[in-house]
Amino acid sequence: MIDDGVYRIKCRYAVALQKLIQANKKINRASGNTPHPGADDSYGKLSSSTGIRKGTISDTITAKTDIKGSTLYRLLGALGYSLAQFGAVFDAVTEAEIDAHMALLTKGK
Question: For the purposes of burial, counting CB atoms within 10 Å of the CB of 91, is it exposed (0-12), middle (13-18) or buried (19 or more)?
Answer without folding.
Answer: exposed
